[in-house]
Amino acid sequence: MRGSTTESDAEPATKEAAEAHEAAGDAEEPAGGAEQYAGADEEYAGGAEEYVTDARRARWAAVGTGALLTCAGLGAALLRSAGAAPALVPAAYALGAAVCALAAVLGARGRTRRALWLLIAGVMIMAIGDQFD
After folding, report:
1. Residue 27: which pLDDT band, with cuts at 50, 70 and 90?
2. What is d(CA 102, CA 120) in angstroms, rounded to the nearest whole number?
3. Is residue 117 situated within a structural domain?
4. Which of 64, 59, 45, 68 shows the shortest CA–CA distance to 108?
5. 32 in the Ramachandran plot: left (φ > 0), alpha (ψ -120 to 50) or beta?
6. How many structural domains comprise the chain?
7. How many CA atoms lie within 13 A of 3 on its CB side?
8. pLDDT grade, residue 85 (50/70/90)?
9. Domain assignment of residue 32, yes or no
10. Residues 6 or more apart from 130 whose CB is under 8 A from it?
11. Which of 2, 81, 96, 120 could form a disulfide with 90 if both were Cys (CB 3.0 to 4.6 A apart)?
């Protein structure tokens, strides 16, 4: 019995061979083949257009937010420098505004993730500087 092959021994070898063919890409193509994927080009083009729209929206959001926070930081720096606040407070607002301006420039160039982190850092600098008052 040792040298003979039974039906139960042959089945796992067949399954392993089928899995090896599928992994290598040698599996037979299902009926219909290219007809199944006829609309794939149009579907991909729609996805690419949507991606461009989302990227453009993210750039505009980064630029707009950066410009708004820059103006707010500069305005606060001017108001604080005219008052009796320590010199560190308007300097912190001005530094935070400069970081937000850099974020707006990076956002315009498409570096929206870095722009987001710089916006967060700029607002944190302004907030920490306000604590010195």
Report:
1. very low
2. 12
3. yes
4. 59
5. left
6. 1
7. 0
8. confident
9. no
10. 89, 92, 93
11. 81
Domain that holds residue 130: 52-133
- The rounded distance, in Å, linking the Cα atoms of 100 and 53 is 24
Q: What one-character DSSP code corresponds to residue 29?
A: P
74: in domain? yes
Residue 109 φ then ψ, to 5°: -85, 0
Alpha-carbon distance of 104 to 114, in angstroms, equals 10
Residue 69 lies in a domain: yes
Tell me the one-letter amino acid at 48. Answer: A
Query: DSSP letters along 38-84, please?
Result: TTHHHHHHHHHHHHHHHHHHHHHHHHHHHHHHHHHHHHHHHHHHHTT
* Angle at which helices 88-108 and 40-82 cross, to 10°: 160
State pLDDT tens for residues 45-70. 567 788 888 889 999 999 999 999 99
